Amino acid sequence: MNRRDFFRGAALGASGLLSLPRLAEAVQTAASPYRRPKLKITDVRTAEVMAHGLQLHVRVYTDQGITGHGEATDAVAGGAALVASFRRALIGSDPLNVDAIFENIRTLGVFAGAQGGQYVAALSGVEIALWDLAGKALGLPVYQLLGGKMRDRIRLYCDTDIDRRDDPKAREKLAQVKALGFTAVKTDIDDAGDRWKAHQTKTNWTASNAEVARMVDDVSFMREVFGPEMDIAVDMHAQYDVGTAKRVAKEMERFKLMWLEEPVPAENIAAMREVRRSTSTPICCGENLYLRHGFRELLEQGAADIIMPDIQKCGGLSEARKIADMAHTYYVAFAPHCVVSPIGTMASCHVCAAVPNFLVLEWHWIHRMPLWKGFVKEGDIIDRGFITVPDRPGIGVEMDDEFARRAQAAGSSWF
Ligand code: MG
Description:
2 domains, binds magnesium ion, single chain, TIM Barrel, 40% helix, 3-stranded antiparallel sheet, Enolase-like, domain 1, 16 helices, alpha/beta
């Protein structure tokens, strides 16, 4: 409707010939030349990839031919069936109302496990696909829809798993990490197969003197190899009791770590806080917490210096942004856990670009470089330990289906 039609419509409205809703539409159309795209979801399909564990890829299809691609991880066993169970809530919906769709499916599942775990992980994959779709429909990168970017490049840390002085290949592997230009790394010091644990059962949570000494030597080795400039994070995978956690955190003070990760499980907030208060080593946790609700009390109780939500399972991009903002009010840094493909990693980068308290993002594919480089059509998206957030509409990377299918999970279907 042009301006003349509008005045004609207004006159007709005034004379009672045009209904009020039509008059309102006429006012809106005349006031702005822009039209919101009209889309309807027509289908949702999944594919499963075995890389760093099982990863669930979700595609949402629309009546305009625009599709969105999302990814979920870790808690995705049975995720394809869960996404199929969301179909009824998705088909026919306007995909641009991302938060409304998320909240609708989440609240529908209150009695079906929507407080966390597989339910929220599968929903995260759908939510991320909706953001990709919204960006493509509106012609904007996802970071723009999340409030715009505060930084162009996202700093990564390279997770190298276990690194030990007596491993003849360790120095070669760490030299490769250095050569790739990373400025931060993470190593694991918990080891279920630890020779010092031979006299204990695997479920025993107390480390012996020998095991603590081995942990200290592992980190000492990392410092020797990388020097004082490299930021080093150390993961204990929530496998130890409070006494051990406090001992290790104290021993780690000399190494000036970027953080010590989950020295105890994150669900016991009082225990985590006790460890944090006992040491100057920064404590990071939260890769197995879900939604804002999972982080609320942790932040209120001051139990962590840094939080690490996994964006591909904690609720998706919008929820991660809200968690980061909540953490920022407690002056807590945001360093997302991330083990997914370039698609999920790039989706995480859009959130990391949009929040003030971003510290560093995980990258966990050093042992899967060929798959990483071929997974999306854009190739290797990392340059010297950083990812530049793209300005293309949506997430900004596209799966190379033929290549990615090399890692298809056995017995799964492909979209
Ligand atoms: Mg961890």
